[in-house]
Specification:
Blueprint: H1 3-19, H2 26-40, H3 51-55, H4 59-79, H5 82-85, H6 94-115, H7 119-123, H8 126-138, H9 141-146, H10 151-159, H11 165-173, H12 180-207, H13 209-212, E1 216-217, E2 220-221, H14 223-228, H15 235-243, E3 249-253, E4 260-264, H16 266-269, H17 279-289, E5 294-295, E6 298-299, H18 303-318, H19 325-343, E7 351-352, E8 355-356, H20 358-368, H21 375-389, H22 396-399, H23 404-415, E9 431-436, H24 439-450, H25 466-479, H26 482-488, H27 498-505, E10 516-521, E11 526-528, E12 531-539, E13 544-551, E14 557-559, E15 565-567, E16 570-573, H28 576-592, H29 603-616, H30 619-625, H31 637-644, H32 653-656, E17 657-662, E18 673-681, E19 692-700, E20 703-706
Antiparallel strand pairs: 1-2, 3-4, 5-6, 7-8, 9-10, 10-12, 11-12, 12-13, 13-14, 13-15, 16-17, 17-18, 18-19, 19-20
Helix pairs in contact: 1-4, 2-8, 4-10, 4-12, 4-19, 8-10, 12-17, 17-18, 17-19, 18-19, 18-20, 20-21, 21-23, 24-25, 25-26, 28-29, 29-30
Amino acid sequence: MDDKQFEQQMKLLNKSYNRVPSKFNADDVLSKIEAENQKQHEVPVVNAVKPSKWQRVSVWAVSLASVFLIGILSASFMNDHDDQKNNAAAEYDQKEIEELKKDYQKEREKRQKMLGLTSEQYNQMGFVKFADIEFARITHPDTIKNSTVSLKVAYGETIKYLRLPSEMVATLQVGDQLNEEMSMLFVDELSNRMDDLKMVYDQILVEHKEVLNTAKMNGKLDVDYLYSKQKDLPEPVQHMISNSSHEGIKIKVAANQKEYVTDYQRNELFPGLEGKLAYPALNLLYMKSMEPFTNAGELVYSPKESASIIESMEYSLMGVKQPGGLYAVIKSYYEDLAYTLIFGSPQTAVFENGKIKEEYQSAWNYFLSIQGTSPMKYFMKPVVDSLSANNWEVNDTYKFLDFNRLKEALWLAETGELAKLMPAEELADSVEVVEWPNSELQQKIHGYLKNLGYKNPDYSLSNLSPIESVLLFSYAQQLDIPKVMLDLALPFQGMESVTDLHAFLGDENILPEEEITLTYDDRLTTYQNDEYFGNVEVQTKETIKVIPVVKNREGVWQLDLGISVISENYFEPINLHYTKRVQKIYKEFQKAYDYDIIKWENPDIIAGIYLEALYSGDAETQYALLLDDENYSRPTREEYIGDYSRSADVMDWKTLYESVEYQPEVLEDDYDHDQVIYYNLKAEYRTDNEKQKGFQLRKTSEGWRVHFMPMQ
């Protein structure tokens, strides 16, 4: 469909919506449609629009297109009833039509009551209008006479257009998992219906704004207080509060803090979609639920958070093989957010005094750490390299940056061509790993103790990495140099003096007196209120200690001693964030089986990749993860692919398990040891004899590997 055809279809569909009367009457609807069809022959030819207009189509138009496509596809579903195709044309039965009209009216009224809406509010929703139009069409005598399906079958499909989001999810839960094409159609339809509901609910909030704005705590709008006063609110708002959450919608305070608006309520509706939809479609829906990303041209999230969102958007968009309406919506969000993050807005510049602001430096550097194919990384790498080499002072490379090149990069990613142009990945750029003791690093740390920064700028604490700050604090603690300790400790209540510091730490050093591995993953660094937050992981033979660190406004990485924690047990819920990380690493590893990609990953990630490959029937990746050691059994590649790759009854591990946990072993060496991690079954899959399943791996010098038949 070209731009001209698309515009014409949108105009026709929008007119059809507007023709639906406030009170449903199939004959009235159909007569108005027929009258409009007569006018279509008199419409002059419209000039072709520019190619770029399709790319800039507004969100409402995309939503209408999705509904239009759903209608066409639903019609094709009706034609798929093989037992109907060879029947003679259905006979016209006025009595049957009258009965269906009564039943259809009951179905409409039932949904209207479920939502607690007035007839006027209910009738203005797009999916209700579309259902009315379709019902009028299938009950028209000409349609019945020319149809190859029975009126009963056609009516059964039409009723589906009235389903509320909660009904759609409930129906989905009792069926099989949808493939990607059907998943994309489902999320398009679900998204459109939720948008229709949000529109009506927002109108209700606007109509009663004056009363609702009295619901304040300490002079500020407060949702919890609003909900607590539900009985005192206008009746339409009471109905909204009672019913909206079931449809995945909630009330929140607007970004301007001046009114109440609607938002997605993911916790109520979305969990029912897990395991039933293909992940590319589900990811798009989760991205949609995070909107808005900009408000009045300004970033809603911090620059670093916005950069992370862009990475997630890219991951979601590039995972889609069957683009639909929701895909186009997320793509438009992506372009809008990317433009604002790179060029700023009239109110907020990305540079100050001719230099890129530090929070934007961090956000743009984040793009360079993205693993795999990334349009934003491809687009920003030349300018970030140029700016960082120029002390982040604004130069011509930035001034002449052409945003259209990012759109071109996204198009190349969609066609699969961008991967060939991406720079080689370097994990070391984003993950710092230090084996301690380390003679070279020890000399550097001693240098800082002898040359305090205020005397020698070359030894300023702001030059230290997170791991180096932790090591320097440990040495200062051993040698009792309070000035350095205080400079490197994040101030908090009860920690203002050396006495407080000693009392808090006691005699135990912040680092154990044995061989340790310190790791800092810059990809997990977050930015908020002009400060950076991260974690230094300290691993011994027995425990794992996490030391939170914060980079203050002076550029010094300080230790947040108040929340340092020793963890003797890893625990990770199997949620969307975790599974997305597993799938991302899986896809990168799958390309060429480059073991450097997975060398530093934890055992639960390696096990997750194996289980994802098992569920996908990807025997090659499973085999690539198996332990290759003469002391352990392993079939040949041919044997494995033929006999062991996947049994017929494998269930999606993301549906079966709710969390994964394991306890580090007491080790003699850093590697060459076995580890069992445990997947905890969801409640509905537990039995008296089984609540979790063990998964066996072995740590080698090249990272974690999977035992043959790891879950027996």
